[in-house]
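We were asked to recover a plausible sequence for a given structure. The inputs and outputs are reproduced exactly as logged, with field labels preserved.

PROBLEM: sequence recovery
POSITIONS: 160
GIVEN STRUCTURE:
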């Protein structure tokens, strides 16, 4: 069992932590552990954790409005160029040790390209071909299994 150390919190912050932990069905200790581990990972990668959370809030708000970050080179690109760009970015994310599954799920879900399941993404072929090419490229460049069928593309996210 890990050693524990008490820390002092303002009463208001302790109340907020209790509410958040209860919302997710975990203990305060478990919730704080998760926050600290995520913050440490962000800091190890050179990000200031509080700033990263604020940027994530902005990106999530944009995603809810149907806007997701894509490389500038994708603007005006055709399907083939978009796929190559996705492959390049997917390979880079893999080298950096970052999981591309969240990005694929976000783009697919928010832009209505298909259906996101826990361990796979089903993308419909259709009018948004450059974006489909980009997402498929991200997956294949990262090394995920991609199965292309006549009407749907299946990306296996690797979650078990």
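RECOVERED SEQUENCE:
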């Amino acid at each position: 069992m890990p050693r524990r150390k008490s820390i002092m919190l303002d009463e208001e912050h302790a109340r907020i932590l209790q509410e958040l932990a209860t919302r997710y069905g975990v203990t305060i200790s478990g919730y704080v552990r998760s926050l600290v581990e995520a913050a440490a990972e962000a800091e190890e990668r050179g990000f200031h954790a509080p700033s990263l959370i604020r940027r994530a809030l902005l990106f999530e708000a944009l995603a809810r409005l149907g806007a997701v970050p894509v490389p500038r080179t994708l603007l005006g690109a055709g399907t083939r160029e978009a796929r190559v760009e996705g492959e390049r970015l997917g390979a880079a994310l893999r080298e950096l040790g970052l999981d591309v599954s969240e990005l694929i799920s976000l783009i697919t879900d928010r832009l209505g390209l298909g259906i996101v399941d826990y361990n796979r993404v089903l993308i419909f072929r259709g009018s948004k071909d450059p974006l489909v090419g980009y997402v498929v490229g991200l997956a294949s460049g990262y090394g995920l299994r991609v199965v292309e069928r006549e009407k749907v593309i299946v990306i296996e996210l690797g979650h078990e």
